[in-house]
Amino acid sequence: MIRQGFSLVALTTGLMVASGVWAESGYTMDDPNIAVSYEEDGRYFTEDDVPTFNVTDDGKVDWLTFSGFRRYHSECHVCHGPDGEGSTYAPALKKSALDMDYYDFLDVVTNGRQRVDAADNSVMPAFGTNLNVMCYLDDIYVYLKARGMEAVPRGRPGSKEAKSDAIREAENACMGT
């Protein structure tokens, strides 16, 4: 059975609601933007075929969420801060993966974005030619979604599912190995 949830769901749900985490995000675990509809070869998807995360009751994360943590911290955290929390240089991304359409997220990362006006001067560089980002874009996205929901705490996830053969093959094909 595929199960999506938080580590120690019964204990943390009350704490999260009390702390306003869910109220702040406007999402719940059964929201169609979050909820796992199906699993295919170690990847989890919403009913709209958008990648999402899966965390078991004991805190084990799916492979993409674990990989996303690693890739985010190798490529994104320098500007956007550790664990998707943001910095003085660039905004927090952990909520962006919840609020931004998946395809808009892909577009911004691939092509970059520039906002320059009287109140804003920000540039997101294009990563469309960086295989260390593009081959792992879904991984980064699901990690940020999981962080936005506080389904995974700050820091490296403690345990993970094994990498499926299909994920390994897709990675090798993308990286040209």
UniProtKB/TrEMBL annotation:
Show which residues constitute the signal peptide: 1-23
* Swiss-Prot/TrEMBL keywords: Heme, Iron, Metal-binding, Signal
The superkingdom of the source organism is: Bacteria
UniProt feature, compositional bias: Basic and acidic residues? 158-171
Positions of region (Disordered): 153-177
Where does the Cytochrome c domain lie? 67-133
Which GO MF terms are attached to this record? electron transfer activity; heme binding; metal ion binding
Which InterPro entries does UniProt cross-reference here?
A: C-typ_cyt_methanol_metab-rel, Cyt_c-like_dom, Cyt_c-like_dom_sf
Pfam families in UniProt:
Cytochrome_CBB3
Coiled coil: is it a keyword of this entry?
A: no
Using the record for this protein, list the coiled-coil segments as residue ranges, or answer none: none
Q: What is this protein called?
A: Cytochrome C
State the species of origin.
Answer: Donghicola eburneus
